[in-house]
Design goal:
9 helices, mainly alpha
């Protein structure tokens, strides 16, 4: 019987987003396969996490493309991006907590591409006057990632309703990033 690698990865992602300390035995059970079959697909937890990283990068890149971040006002593009990432936020929250993915020389180039795409969106908002210029695009990118992960964990723990995910992130992020309206010039009498 052939093992559906995508099914195994998505089962692992679903489990690990709820229980990041799950064992390989638990991952195998969640996927409906034996531990030996799981180990034939992934030599160990590190290999599984690296495969999940590849899946997460693909999901993020697809969300960026679907969000059309280069179209319309930057504030609208941020809303679309958060909405497109929402279905994958649990996996991204798990990956966000996996420090080995972001250490050393072997960092996946996919994250750098995603970082640059998101930073470009924030730079565009700054250039158009929508976003504050005193916060760097790199910081705004990290703030977005932190909000996505925090909201995913809050939803998974039942502290926040899933239907509020996009609204909470967008309103908090944009509330802090929007450039304040300039006061009207006072007329001298």
């Amino acid at each position: 019987m052939a093992v559906d690698r995508d099914h195994v990865l998505r089962s692992a992602a679903a489990l690990l987003t709820r229980k990041s300390t799950a064992t390989m035995d638990e991952v195998a059970r969640a996927a409906g396969i034996s531990r030996a079959t799981l180990h034939r697909q992934f030599a160990g937890r590190d290999a599984l996490v690296r495969a999940l990283e590849t899946l997460g990068i693909a999901e993020c890149e697809a969300a960026l493309a679907a969000a059309r971040t280069d179209e319309g006002p930057a504030t609208d593009a941020v809303r679309r991006l958060v909405a497109e990432i929402e279905p994958h936020a649990g996996l991204l929250a798990f990956l966000y907590s996996e420090n080995q993915l972001f250490e050393g020389e072997e960092q996946n180039e996919g994250w750098a591409r995603i970082d640059e795409s998101v930073a470009t969106l924030f730079r565009r908002g700054q250039s158009s006057g929508e976003f504050r210029i005193d916060l760097t695009p790199a910081w705004l990118t990290e703030a977005l990632y932190g909000l996505l992960a925090s909201a995913a964990w809050a939803v998974a723990e039942g502290r926040v309703a899933p239907k509020d995910f996009t609204h909470m992130i967008v309103e908090l992020l944009l509330g802090g990033v929007r450039r304040p309206a300039q006061p009207a010039a006072r007329k001298e009498s």
